[in-house]
Design brief:
This protein is mainly alpha-helical. The protein folds into two domains: 32 residues; 249 residues, TIM Barrel, CATH 3.20.20.370. It contains 14 helices and seven strands. Strands 3-4-5 form a three-stranded parallel sheet, covered by helices on one side. The chain has a two-stranded parallel ribbon with strand order 1-2. Helix 3 packs parallel to helix 12 and helix 6 crosses helix 7. The longest helix has 17 residues.
Length: 287
Amino acid sequence: MVKISRLTSWIKHLAKRRGSRIFAQSARMFYFHMQPFHKLLDRMFTSLEEFDAGFTFPLVASIADKHQDYTEFLKSYPYEIAIHGYKHVRYQHLSPKQVEQELYLATKAFQKNKIPYKGFRAPYNNYSEATIRLLEKFDFLWDIGIGYQQSYRETYHFFNFKFQNGKKSTYTCIPLCKWSDDFMIDKYNFSDKQIAKALTIQLRKAKEVNGVVMFDLHPIRIGRREYINGLKLFLEQADKHNAWVPSVTEAVEYWRKHKSWKHDAPVCCLLTGDIDNFTFWDYLRRF
């Protein structure tokens, strides 16, 4: 009886704090998680292997720590893993000290689990001034969330963040396209063919300026049976456009050294996909 009372209080608290949308989103995530996460990854890996394409998975460190089986499964494939925070929280609402603690715990968890890392994306692509500054202290090579800010979103080149004192970041930043899978699927209910078409349009724009385009394609959506063909259809188009599709670290390191793309490719395409929950209960624990 006490547990039911606590659950009822928790639901009322959520409704007051987050509004009714939280229940629709939770129902959607419950539905998404009906397909086991390793099956979602399997489908993605099959498509990526067919086109020899790279992929970078920003992973929440506490989730990696909790689910050793899933983490080891992910590590067993040749795809890059990046840090997506220790917990999936909005850094904008944290003090600088709290942000530093989050980054410290995340890096320590990755080291403990023997996960190599070079890069970072903040949860919700939500940054505070402290986050942007602290990325240098933790010696990240690149960041792939700052570039979601409106001023960068429609550009197609690497950049270094410019601080108020005029100094530029030592880490490389990459513009993040607005056409993420949640934007296409949750908001517009795109089909697999529409997903592929939207991504291809952005690829062509980047190709016009010999640039780079990066997408955020969460496994929880793009790995589903009804959407995985969207990834495959897009990879077919990327292949036709002679795009180079490496991991983020491969792209950044190669560009820093050569100021061009590998194989003289006319465009670089970076596929990324955040993992902030392996199970539906991971998702609920956010709240």
